[in-house]
Write a structure and sequence with these properties.
Belongs to the binding-protein-dependent transport system permease family. The chain has helices spanning 4-13, 21-31, 33-50, 52-55, 87-123, 125-139, 143-154, 158-166, 169-185, 188-195, 200-208, 213-236, 248-254, 265-292. With 299 residues, it is an all-alpha fold.
Length: 299
């Protein structure tokens, strides 16, 4: 005869059902609604960038002198610029530039910083001291100042722009990852890997880096918003991507003071696009940090 106690024991011994990715997403949306909104905007931005040739109503580079400074209307929903180019089409294609530069700089900067941070924590001693002093020197410069200096040295091509934006991100990520890697270094499995004779590279890449993925992902998402804003700032200053490339910062640069009163839409809509993208990535990054950090996790 099966009793209530037996049923309880069987239920306790039954393995817990593994949650699928859909369960994780739904739980994230329920617990972090603001983060879910940010993630939805990010996904929408990615879809817009991928489908730009299909959804853009006009060629973003096509010049139409007959439609110069046309206000928003049926033909041009967000108006045109001083060359008659459709503002909506340039904003849509500008999302491609923002994501390419943003993802490229954030990924390279976060990854290089993670490797440096883990390596510094793993070797310790003089290596850690030297690496951290170099990181302190780089981190003392504001993001925009160091990026401006790098662009001035390397030139303002797209690959050089990504490199210039990567440099200020590396030390910031390295310091955060190092603090997590210091505790991982003392774990028994790292000592066991050393005793087994594994190489330093294998221990760092296979045993330490995977265990600092939470702060790495948090830094990556937070850098995405900063990278998009930094790219727009450099383009606005004339040190980013160059005309006729569709870029939000360039659109703001084209909407100079002389058009502030006669064609305010030239600055309004690109500015809204930049603000929305940065806001979305920051919302998602903050919520991801709360979800992955055990000290901030609730329920």
């Amino acid at each position: 005869m099966t009793t209530t106690t037996d049923i309880a024991i069987v239920e306790a011994e039954a393995p817990e059902r593994r949650r699928g990715w859909l369960d994780v997403v739904l739980d994230f949306c329920r617990r972090r609604p603001l983060g879910a909104i940010g993630a939805a905007i990010v996904v929408l931005m990615i879809l817009v960038a991928l489908t730009a040739p299909m959804i853009a109503p006009y060629d973003p580079l096509a010049i139409d002198f007959a439609a110069m400074l046309a206000p928003p209307g049926a033909d041009h929903w967000l108006g045109t610029d001083a060359y008659g180019r459709d503002v909506l089409s340039r904003i849509i294609y500008g999302s491609q530039t923002a994501l390419i530069v943003g993802f490229g700089a954030a990924f390279v900067g976060s990854t290089a910083g993670a490797v440096l941070g883990v390596g510094s924590a793993y070797f310790g001693g003089r290596v850690d001291l030297i690496v951290q002093r170099f990181m302190d020197i780089f981190i003392s410069f504001p993001l925009i100042i160091l990026a401006l200096a790098m662009v001035a040295i390397l030139g303002n091509t797209l690959p050089n722009l990504i490199i210039a934006m990567t440099a200020p991100m590396v030390p910031r990520c390295a310091l955060v990852i190092r603090s997590s890697a210091l505790s991982v270094r003392e774990m028994p499995y790292v000592d066991a890997a050393r005793a087994a004779g594994f190489s330093h590279a294998r221990i760092i890449l296979r045993h330490m880096l995977p265990n600092v993925m939470a702060p790495y992902l948090i830094m990556l998402t937070s850098f995405l918003g900063q990278a998009i804003l930094l790219e727009a700032s450099l383009s606005f200053l004339g040190l980013g991507v160059q005309e006729p490339t569709a870029a939000w910062g360039l659109m703001l640069r084209g909407a100079a003071v002389e058009f502030a009163e006669t064609a305010p839409w030239m600055a309004l809509f690109p500015g809204l696009a930049i603000s929305l993208a940065v806001f979305a990535f920051n919302l998602f990054g903050d919520s991801l940090r709360d979800a992955l950090d055990p000290k901030l996790r609730t329920g």
